[in-house]
C-alpha cells in the first residue's frame, strides 16, 4: 500500500532529509587516506545525535540478513556495490567509496547516498561516479505527477546502459515515509509507461547502482550484507529522497 503524504508531512520529511544531507557532507569531508570506515560511521553518528535523530540503519534486519546491521552508514569500497559494513579498514589513495545514510526525525525518514574517490582519482572512476549522478538526475527528472514508476526506471537504465555500465538486478529504490522502506519498489531499469502512476504526495528513494565492468553479476560477501561485483570492477551508488508534487519533484535530501 502506498501512503500519500500531506504537504505538511513532506515538510517534515525534508527536515529528516536535511539531517541525512549534513551527515553525508560531514563524512565526505572527513574521508581521507588513513581514515577508517568505523571513524566515518562515528562522524555520521555524531551528526544524527546532534540533530536528535535516530538511524533507520542501525539494528535493521531484513529477511535476507543473518544479523542486524551494526552501523548508521553503509560504507562500500571499490568493488562493493551497496550495504558495506563499516570496519577498521583504512582508506587508501584512489579508493572509490559509496556512503549510504538514513535518519529518522519526528516520525519521518530520509535516505540518501553519495559516491566519491579518496585522494587521486582514476579517470574511469570519475566517469563512473559522474554517470551515477546523471542517472540519479534523470530518474528524478522523470518523477513527475502523471508519469509511472517505469518511467523513472527507464530514465535511470538508459543513462547507465548508454555509458556501458552494468545494473545489479533486483536492487533499486523504494517508497519512503514513516519507515525507510515502503511501497512501491523503484527499479533501476524498466519499460516506460509501466507500473504505478505517480501522484502528488508520493515519496520515493531513487537510487541508481552502477557496475563499472559492464556486467550485471554480483554476489553476497561472507558478512551476509555487502554486495560485490562478480568481475571485481568498481561500483558507484547515488541516491536522494524525492517527493512527487504538483509543482515537480522536490529533493528532500539535497546537500
UniProtKB/TrEMBL annotation:
The keyword Signal does not apply. Residues 12-246 form the Peptidase M24 domain. The keyword Acetylation does not apply. It is an enzyme of class 3 (hydrolase). GO terms for cellular component: cytosol. Substrate binds at residues 83, 181. Its EC number is 3.4.11.18. Monomer. This is Methionine aminopeptidase. The lineage of its organism: Bacteria, Bacillati, Actinomycetota, Actinomycetes, Kitasatosporales.
